Amino acid sequence: MPQYKAPVEDMMFLLRDVFRVEDVFAELPEQKDNDLETIGSILEEAGKFCSEVLYPLNAVGDIEGCRLENGVVRTPDGFARAWKTFSEAGWGGLSAPTDYGGQNLPRTVQILVDEMLSASNLSFGLFPGLTRGACEAIEAHATQHLKDTYLPNMISGVWTGAMALTEGNAGSDLGLLKTTAVPRPDGSWTVTGSKIFISSGDHDMAENVIHLVLARIPDAPAGTKGISLFLCPKVLVNDDGSLGARNAISVGALEHKMGIHAQPTCVMNYDGCQGWMVGEPNRGLAAMFTMMNAERLFVGVQGLGVADASGQTALAYARERLQGRVPGRSGTVPIIAHADVRRTLLSMQSFIEAARAMVVHTALEMDREKFHPDAAVRQRAGENVALLTPVIKAALTDFGFEATVAGQQVLGGHGYIREWGQEQYVRDARIAMIYEGTNGIQAQDLVMRKLMLSDGLPVRTYFAQIRQTLADAAADSHAAALAEPLRSALDLLEGVTTRLVSGDLANNDDRNAAAVDYLRLFALVSFGWMWVRMVLACAASGKALPEACVQHKRAAAIFFMQRVLPQATALTQQIGAGAGSIMALADEMF
Amino acid sequence: MTGHDAMKKILVPIKMVLDANMRPRVKADGSGVDLSGMKLSINPFCEIAVEEAVRLKEKGLAEEVVVVSIGPAKVQDILRQAMAMGADRARLIETDQPVEPLAAAKLIRTAVAEETPDLVILGKQAVDDDCNQTGQMLAALLDWPQATFASALHVEADSVKVTREVDGGHQTLVLPLPAVVTTDLRLNEPRHCALPNIMKARKKPLDVRPVAECGVDMAAHLNVLSVRPPEARKAGRCAANVNELVGDLHAAGVI
């Protein structure tokens, strides 16, 4: 039967050999005591928890799903118990501030644990993920009283969080939203409106759900500059911290979805409920977007995690399934002997391992942005994160979804039936391409905004870093062999970047039409960069790495350069074609 | 036994081994298993021993749990893990040499002499060499009663009642304290460590001392002739009939 094992060794390879995180953390006063041994034991224990507690609930949750009974959401059997275990073990507080009961560990560690959560049980992983997002918004923008009232119980998992943005007519364009908030004499607000697609909107796992709701106050300007953020608890909290009356919040319906069946995605009704403003009036979207980079990194990691879970099953199956013969081997062979199956497995692995490296690279920049003592370093790191966030979100979920389809394909008919779990990964992975800003929106963000950020300094810096690695690669024959294909692809990427920023494609339609292809090209070059860095790290790590790991990395890197990165040429042509063929056709001719 | 007359101390000797999920590879020169770069973990039976000791402490039946291990500096990882599970402090007897069971038992005896525990709980064997000797040798060296392969353990006044898994079923022994107990798989299921306890374990005391200070003869008394991986399974074939099968089995010398 399928199993999930957290890839702790690969994570530690990245932390120890590729990114040397002890050196990075040494520069961050709050994080300087985080040694590899401690991080290793945290990842080890989190991995055990995910494999042994959350993974066995994944298929159960998919089949049973959430139910709405008399206005109350019931989660699948075992979820409430798992949440209690998760919370009591303190996992919800990993990167939360110590003032409110958290451990203040780096984002880099958090995001690797998030990968395990997503891989073992995507539906479950959303509960702590959203709760953390809500906590970060409250911590950054709410009054001290709200922080003291809500953060400790949310961080300990006694309560959970939900983010209520989308409405029926306001999705990608939140400026259209209609939910209202009217002031009350005591300083709180009356919030009225209806929201859809609210993940973890209600459930039976914790005694309270804290909603962060976007709404308009009276006389607010139209559009996104007239949106404020409100904290609305499902159950009102008394002055002494105990729970009081039910707030006027109810579940209108549960959405019926393609995947993540165990995650209660709710239609929420706020029927004149009591709320408290978080942050400034009409600055709600900005407050919400404070943690948007972190949330989008989290969603990208969901694509990576589910891909890895599917890849592990595909690999185990390919080693055991006996079908067909190959020249030079006697008898029926395990299907891993067939070139096409090997190609499929390597296509998954060459994505997964490079994507994990990209995640660590980006999370370390987030840690610098948050913890570095030098404001200039924080500023630059923040810009680098801003540049990479849409790439991580969209590329890891696009490629991640493709990987789950590949993982399904390895199992043939057994991938299509439920028993092996491969079809669930395909359905579950699909949502990550859509929510938290669709991947199309991410690509627009990259091409229309992030390339131009700070006059293009972050993207130029990024390309310069890659060129530096290409120079370093000469020191190791294995890495040097990878440098030429990566250099060619980087040349293509830099070429179209110039055309989009200031050349013949620097107009709205061409940029818009190029965006998705451009993001993919950007991601492929980034993965190639990570492969060269990983192969260089293999040479530098001495005896710390098992020989089998070194051989695997070198082979997967060559595979990536020879059989994945050549897509860069086609993508460059597609981008270069411009929007002409797309825009020429009249709407009614489609 | 109630809280106020709880055992003062339980000592839990633990061993680091190649992680049970890793595929062992033999060194090219056939001298042993290649551990370089491989994942090393606490021996599963030792983890059960730590769990049992911590549970006794949590029930108020013991005041302190001390873990001890022998090996290179890397062994600190499993000592920290044991402290994350709930052990109070740790001792590392540091050596890069191989440690045979008798030397291990003698080194643990030096820790017993300093710690004077009421109870020593060990794993029944380590999954690397499967020797199943250290606990027995330790009991003999100390001249303490021993109960091996424990599947249940109850602390009573000045004694422990241990249910052992033996070939014919279960055997129950009562041992006066101090005593040595070794754990079998069914004794308990080790816990998942809580994150705050992992963080706290970093600050718990860990005493490191070189093996040379222990005055124990570390010379090898066992001579390893060669280590090799198990023979790969050969391809089978279908016999045409029973007579042919019996003939083949005779020819192979297996019947």
Automatic annotation (TrEMBL), chain A:
Top-tier EC class: oxidoreductase
What are the residue boundaries of the Acetyl-CoA dehydrogenase-like C-terminal domain, all occurrences included?
463-585
Under which EC number(s) is this enzyme classified? Answer: 1.3.99.41
Q: What is catalysed by this protein? A: 3-(methylsulfanyl)propanoyl-CoA + oxidized [electron-transfer flavoprotein] + H(+) = 3-(methylsulfanyl)acryloyl-CoA + reduced [electron-transfer flavoprotein]
Query: Per the database record, which ranges form the Acyl-CoA dehydrogenase/oxidase C-terminal domain?
Result: 282-449
Superkingdom classification of source: Bacteria
Q: Does Cell membrane count among this protein's keywords?
A: no
Q: Name one GO molecular function term.
A: oxidoreductase activity, acting on the CH-CH group of donors
Q: Does the keyword Oxidoreductase apply?
A: yes
Task: Please list the residue ranges annotated as the Acyl-CoA oxidase/dehydrogenase middle domain.
Answer: 162-272
Q: Cite the entry's keywords alphabetically.
A: FAD, Flavoprotein, Oxidoreductase
Q: Which cofactor does this sequence's record say it needs? A: FAD
Q: Which residues form the Acyl-CoA dehydrogenase/oxidase N-terminal domain?
A: 80-157
Reported function: Involved in the assimilation of dimethylsulphoniopropionate (DMSP), an important compound in the fixation of carbon in marine phytoplankton, by mediating the conversion of 3-(methylthio)propanoyl-CoA (MMPA-CoA) to 3-(methylthio)acryloyl-CoA (MTA-CoA).
Q: Which family does it belong to?
A: Belongs to the acyl-CoA dehydrogenase family.
Provide the protein name: 3-methylmercaptopropionyl-CoA dehydrogenase
Q: Which organism is it from?
A: Acetobacter peroxydans
TrEMBL record, chain B:
What keywords is this UniProt entry annotated with? Electron transport, Transport
- Ranges for domain Electron transfer flavoprotein alpha/beta-subunit N-terminal come to 30-218
Q: Name one GO molecular function term.
A: electron transfer activity
Instruction: Specify the superkingdom.
Output: Bacteria
Q: Does the keyword Nucleotidyltransferase apply?
A: no
Q: Which GO terms describe its biological process?
A: carboxylic acid catabolic process
Cofactor section: AMP
Name the residues that span the membrane: none
Keyword Electron transport attributed: yes
Q: What does this protein do?
A: The electron transfer flavoprotein serves as a specific electron acceptor for other dehydrogenases. It transfers the electrons to the main respiratory chain via ETF-ubiquinone oxidoreductase (ETF dehydrogenase).
The annotated subunit structure for this chain is: Heterodimer of an alpha and a beta subunit.
Protein family according to the UniProt entry: Belongs to the ETF beta-subunit/FixA family.
Q: What is this protein called?
A: Electron transfer flavoprotein subunit beta
